[in-house]
Amino acid sequence: MHRSSFVQTLLILFLTIPFLAIAQEKMITKDGKEYPATSNWEFLCPSYTYSGILNAQIAKTEKGGILKIGINVSDENFYIGDNVYLTLEDGSYIICTDKGIREMKEKQTIAYYFLTASEMNKLKIIQISNIRFQIKGNQDLYSSKTGHFTAINKKSTIEVLGIAEDLKTYNTKAALNSL
Q: Is the model's pTM score more than 0.70?
């Protein structure tokens, strides 16, 4: 009897830990403010061969939300600039206007975009299918590429082998609804 209660306790602990980790996600902005946020999504960006991954995260704020995107670059003078477009599953899109809020951390250029309350509500209803962004800077023969890129809501191929189709994408709706 003692062993079965120990096993039950371990089972409850292992089932609870992932939910606690999800609930504790935070986004710390460039100015040090902390907001409740989704986990980091690693959207595939096949046309950007330097890293192939765009990191995206959305935080809930008092007035709406913040979209944080980051990608590895070869030159710290490269940055994500201009408008970013969130394309949704139904074909609609949200335009995120560049306010020039960016930073460089460990060879990753990071940009922040504000979302209104109505845009956050829309994202709670309709899944993000891709993110269109631009990397700016002076490209040379040996640097990573600059230009326009599209990151799609797909997990890494290695990660998804043998997994059901609906688990091969990030459930952005559910993540935003849990904030």
A: yes
